[in-house]
Design a protein that fits this description.
Blueprint (H helix, E strand, L loop, with lengths): L2 H18 L5 E5 L1 H9 L4 H9 L3 E6 H9 L5 H8 L2 E3 L9 H9 L7 E4 L3 H7 L7 E5 L2 E4 L4 H15 L3 H7 L30 H12 L4 H19 L8 H6 L1
Parallel strand pairs: 1-2, 1-4, 2-3, 4-5
Antiparallel strand pairs: 5-6
Helix pairs in contact: 2-5, 4-6
Bound molecules: zinc ion.
C-alpha cells in the first residue's frame, strides 16, 4: 500500500477509535461475496483486512452469510472453508435471510457493537453510509479500499464534540448567574522572563557607578535640562496666584 494511503487509513481508524470507541482487534463482518472473491483472487483476506484497517482484526461471519455459501454447493467449498475459519456471529435468524439483510440487522441503527463491514454489495454499502460510524471495506480488483467517513459519521462526530464542550447542568449550577467564574488577569504586552529562573543581577561595579553620577551632574544633557526647567516652572506656578495683576481684578469685580 502506498504510504499516503496507509496514513489516511490510519487517521481514519483513529477517528473511529477516538470518537466512537472502536478497539483492536477490529471486528469485521464479512459477507459471502467477499469470501468468494478472496478465494478467487487467492489472497489472504485476514492479512489484507489487517493492512487496510492498519491494525489487528477479527474476521467474523454471520450464520446467514455462511448459509449462503453452503447453498452454493461443492464448487464453493474453499469459500466455505475460509468462512469457517472466521468467528461465527450469531444473528439468531431462525431461517436464513439474505446476507445483506442479516448484516444490516446486526449493525442495527447505531452499530453499537462497533463492527467494520467488508462487502462488495453496493446497495448494502449505500445503506450503511446512513448509519453513523460504520467503517466500510470493499475490494477494487486486488486492492482493499476503506471508504472515507460517511456524512452520517462526520455529523455525529461533530454533534458529540459539541455536546462534550457544553457545560453540564451541575456545572451551570455551580457557576451560578451572579458569580461568573473569575478569570486570571492577564498582563498586557510581552511577558518578561520567569523571575525565578533569572540570575540575580551582580552588584554594579564602581566604574559603572561613576559613569552614572557623571550623567546626573552633566547639566548640558537634554534630560537634565528638562528636569531643571520643569522644576523652575513648578516654582513659578506656586506663586502665580499671588502675582495677579491688581489692575485686572477691579474690572472683573465691576462686571
Ligand atoms: Zn442472520
Amino acid at each position: 500500500m502506498r504510504q499516503r494511503r496507509a496514513k489516511t487509513y490510519r487517521k481514519l481508524m483513529s477517528l473511529y477509535s477516538l470518537s466512537f470507541g472502536f478497539r483492536q482487534p477490529y471486528q469485521v463482518l464479512i459477507d459471502s461475496d467477499m469470501c468468494i472473491l478472496a478465494v478467487a483472487a487467492k489472497t489472504d483476506l485476514h492479512q489484507q483486512l489487517g493492512i487496510v484497517l492498519q491494525g489487528n482484526v477479527k474476521p467474523m461471519i454471520t450464520q446467514c452469510c455462511i448459509q449462503e455459501l453452503y447453498l452454493l454447493g461443492k464448487s464453493h467449498q474453499s469459500a466455505v472453508d475460509l468462512a469457517k475459519s472466521f468467528e461465527r456471529r450469531k444473528c439468531n435468524h431462525r431461517e436464513a435471510i439474505p446476507g445483506q439483510e442479516c448484516i444490516a440487522s446486526v449493525i442495527g441503527e447505531s452499530n453499537k457493537h462497533r463492527y467494520v463491514v467488508a462487502t462488495q454489495l453496493r446497495a448494502l454499502r449505500v445503506m450503511l453510509r446512513l448509519i453513523p460510524a460504520v467503517p466500510i471495506v470493499h475490494r477494487n480488483r486486488a486492492v482493499m479500499i476503506l471508504e472515507p467517513p460517511s456524512d452520517a459519521t462526520l455529523d455525529t462526530k461533530q454533534q458529540n464534540e459539541e455536546k462534550a464542550f457544553q457545560p453540564s447542568a451541575a456545572e451551570l449550577a455551580n457557576i451560578g448567574v451572579d458569580n461568573p467564574p473569575e478569570r486570571p488577569r492577564r498582563r498586557k504586552g510581552p511577558k518578561g522572563p520567569n523571575s525565578l529562573s533569572v540570575k540575580k543581577k551582580a552588584p554594579p561595579d564602581t566604574s559603572q557607578k561613576r559613569k552614572r553620577t557623571d550623567v546626573d551632574e552633566d547639566v548640558t544633557s537634554p534630560t537634565a535640562q528638562k528636569r531643571k526647567r520643569r522644576r523652575k516652572r513648578g516654582d513659578s506656578s506656586a506663586t502665580l496666584s499671588n502675582r495677579v495683576s491688581p489692575a485686572v481684578s477691579p474690572t472683573h469685580v465691576s462686571t
